[in-house]
Amino acid sequence: MASDPSFRTERRRTLRVDRLAMAHPGDLSALAALIEEGTVRADEVVAVIGKTEGNGGVNDFTRGYFTQTLMHLLAAHTGRTPAELLRSVPCILSGGTEGVLSPHYVVFSRREAGATERGGALAIGTALGEALPAHEVGRWSHVRSVASTVRRAMADAGIERAQDVVFVQVKGPCITSARAQAAAAAGHAVVSNDPGRSMAYARAAGAFGVALALGEIADDPAQGTALLADFGVACARASVSSGVEVEADEVIVLGHSPAWTGRLRMGCAPMADALDIAAVSQALAPLAIEARPQVRPADRARIAAAFVKCEPDRRGSVRGARHTMLDDTDINAQRHIRGAVGGLVAGVLGDGRIFVSGGAEHQGPDGGGLVAVIAEVPEA
Hints:
By secondary structure, the chain is of the alpha/beta class. It folds into 3 domains: 12-113, CATH 3.30.1330.170; 119-253, CATH 3.30.1330.180; 263-376, CATH 3.30.1330.160. It has helices spanning 29-36, 62-78, 82-86, 140-157, 177-185, 195-213, 278-284, 297-300, 333-349, and strands spanning 12-21, 45-52, 91-95, 104-113, 119-131, 165-173, 238-243, 248-261, 264-271, 303-310, 317-318, 321-322, 355-358, 369-376. α4 (140-157) packs across α6 (195-213). The chain is globular, with a radius of gyration of 20 Å.
């Protein structure tokens, strides 16, 4: 047994993942109940990723509402202040639960485990960057800032090799009109005065930052011209959101490490386009889950969380057929694509509790995105 590299005497940790429903954006009663009964310890909660029923835009205040409620709940059980928790517990939210998508949140908590237990399980690491000035959002300094934060999150997880990273979730700041005006008053130019466009630049810089941290691209400021221009540059392990509720990049790294134990594993696959249903099966394969055509109830019960990035193809067609998402002035294109791809993935998994985030610039193939799933694997 001593020759088995999955058995090591160093300190081990284990990850717990709880996917919880919400009745409204400020409803954390499910988490409160788990804390009250002792199933989850508030001081062991290290990150939250959630899907709220807002519009997903710059003025989606459901994200801030949820975050504020979460920090006050954790503060009541840890003795720390909400302000302290904001700077240590990433709470990454995406608004918009179109179609069959269901509002929910995924709580990640970690604790110490026995040193003799088998390693190689799913690991989590988190890190928060420094407050990012508005004039740096979407520029190469932003790329470097994200890369540095990702590296710190990898170290926090105990993941030494980039190839062991499966999925990186990033939330970055955007440029509101007020922030743009403040930057101009200080003599700085922002990358875009359009808040929506600034969100796209922030997502692009986040994806480049993840790619830089994982060794997929070089640290070359000249590549800054590729942001929102050369979509051949992409990171298929990056999921990046942007919002008004944060002023610094928040990073969650998920991967596998011999220092972690338990039955949780994660699979991730790039989606070539909005119809790439095969990518869902590819993400499920490392978890010993098949979809024929839908995941069986017994396997569905093993799934702890699912994450999707998608975007309306900017070329105006999907597999040669014209789409009208970009021309619809009644419904935002991001709401179209979240509903469409969310429905596709939910149909395979048989579950609408999926984190589906639009705006997949440089995150997976152009016009596509990625799908990632966490699940418990059968015991050996």
